[in-house]
Amino acid sequence: MDNERGTLRSARAGVTNAPLDRARLPRSRRPVGEPADPGSSSPWILMYHSVAVEEEDPYQLTVSPERFAEQIAWLHRRGRRGVSVRELMRARAHGRGDKLVGLTFDDGYADFARYAVPILQAYGFTATAYVVADLLGQDNGWDVEGPRKKLLTVEEVTELAAAGWEIGSHGLGHQALPGLPADVIAVQTRESRRLLEEVVGGPVTGFCYPYGAVDAPAALAVRDAGYDYACAIAHSALTGRFALPRCYVGDRDGAWRLRAKRGRHRLRDAVTELRHGRRILAERAVTERRP
Question: Fewer C-beta within 10 Å: the chain N or C terminus?
Fold first, then answer.
């Protein structure tokens, strides 16, 4: 891809002409409900959106650079290191993720490169930026009541990936997946991955559900599109590798609120694991009663 217009044009062509078979992307054998790591709780992943100065923020998606620096410094003082979800998953698979925290930035705002990256680099942290493949270089038109925010351009995404920052998919046009026809969901997941892989020049293995909205068909489509993991928001019956829960972080979150959110995450994780265990036992009981 030589320029932003070419990428956007390719994306729109992909929506119309993409074949619906799965020949180009291998079908994963991972069950949708598989834990992020067998026998372990969900990793702690923080969910950011925009790091900037905004007078109006009706959706509470913006954290000021000063507050963001305080939050990152707090993690550092606590002996934790912020990393991309890709790095977090790899580390946990090898039993080395205890002190790691996933840092994610939804929507791919341009202020990620301007404000967040320098602060993270100062502490040796990394992060994942989930970008909207068909809207690179445009703005957040889906936030009707919020301020217009510029999105990362193709060139910026390319540079970030080359510098080691993980780029993940946030779909083609920031459209919630639940309720869409199966073929449309397939295009949203597969084509956004294909387009971004052209931009970054390498594999794109992470997906983030727009608005955090996920159901079983969406999770299955993401798995079958060849992603290694996917981020949601809330704990649910789907919590696992393809619906990782995350903690929202806002401008009001200082040290004590972050500690409280860490505790709440652990509590919700325990409840979710208990419910998963009960469901598995119930399913086994039904199976055993069958003739």
Answer: C
| Phi and psi, residue 153, nearest 5° | -85, 170
Half-sphere CA count of 241, side-chain side, radius 13 A: 25
Over 70: is that where the pLDDT of 111 sits? yes
Beta bridge partners of 161: none
Task: Please give the angle made by the CA atoms of 173, 110 and 47, to the nearest 5 degrees.
Answer: 75
Strand spans (E) along 218-262: 229-231, 247-248
The phi and psi torsions of 82 (rounded to 5 degrees) equal -80, 135
| Residue whose token pair is 């505790």 | 263
pLDDT at 127 over 90: yes
Alpha helices per DSSP H over 170-229: 182-200, 216-224
What mean pLDDT value characterizes the chain? Answer: 87
For tokens 């009981």, what's the residue?
285
| Residue 82 DSSP symbol | E
- When pLDDT is averaged across residues 245-257 and rounded to a whole number, the result is 97
pLDDT in tens, 16-44: 333 333 333 344 456 666 666 544 578 99
Query: Residue 272's pLDDT is what?
Result: 81
- pTM comes to 0.85
| Run of H or E residues at 44 | none
Task: Measure CA of the first residue to CA of the last residue in the chain; give whole Å.
Answer: 59
The whole-angstrom separation of Cα 86 and Cα 165 is: 10
pLDDT at position 291: 63
Run of H or E including 81: strand 81-83
- For 208, the token pair is 């983030």
